[in-house]
Amino acid sequence: MKKRKWNGYLIAGAIITTIIVVWILVGRFYTPYPPTKMSSARLQGPSLAHLFGTDKFGRDIFSRVMQGSGTTLMIAALTILIGAGIGTIVGSITGYFGGIADEVLMRFNDALTAFPSILLALVIISILGSGKHNVIIALGIVFIPSYARMMRTAFAAQREVNYITSARLMGASSARILMVHMLPNTIHVLLPALTIGFNNAVLAEASMSFLGIGVTPPDVSMGYMLSEAQGMFRSAPWYALSVGGVIALLVFGVSLIGEGIQRMNKEVD
Amino acid sequence: MKKRILAGILAVSMVGALLTGCGKGASQSADAAPAAGTEEAAEAADGTETATTERAQANEIVIGIAQDLDQSLDPHYAVAAGTKEVMFNVFEGLVKYDPNGDTIPAVASEVEVSDDGLVYTFTLRDGVKFHNGDNVDLDDVIYSIQRCKDDPKVNPQTSTGLQCIESLEKDGDNKLVMTLSEPNTELMSLLTLAILPADYDKQDTAPIGTGPYKYIGRTAQESVELERFADYWGTPANIDKVTYKVNEKAEGLIMGLESGALDLVSHLSSTQVAELNKDDFNIEQGTMNLVQALYLNNEAAPFDNELVRQALCYAVDRQGILDMAFDGYGFLIGSNVFPAFTKYFDESLTDYYTLETPEAGKEKAKELLAEAGYPNGFDMVITVPSNYAPHCDTAEVIAEQLKEVGINATLKKVEWESWVSDTYAGRNFQATVIGLTADPLTARSLLERFTTAQRVEDAEGNRGNNFINYNNADYDALFEKAVKTYDDEEQTKIYKEMEKNLTEHAASVYIQDMADMVAVRKGLSGLTFYPLYVLDVSTLKWN
Amino acid sequence: MKYVVRRILALIITMIMVSFLAFAAFHIISGDPARAILGMNATESQLKVLRQEMGLDKPFMVQYLNWLIGFFTGNLGISYSYRQPVSELIAPKLKVTLLMVLISFVIIIVCSVPLGLRAAQKSRGRLEWLRTTIIQLCMAVPAFFLSILVSYVFGIIFKFFTPGDFPKIEKDLAGAVKYLFFAAVCIAIPRIAMAVRMLKSTLIEEMEKDYVRTAISRGNDRTEVLKKHVLKNSLVPTITFLGQTMAEIVGGSIVVEQVFGIPGMGRFLVASISNRDYPVVEALVVILAFWVILSGTLADLINQKIDPRLKLGGRA
Question: Where do the domains of chain C lie?
Answer without folding.
Answer: 2-73, 92-274
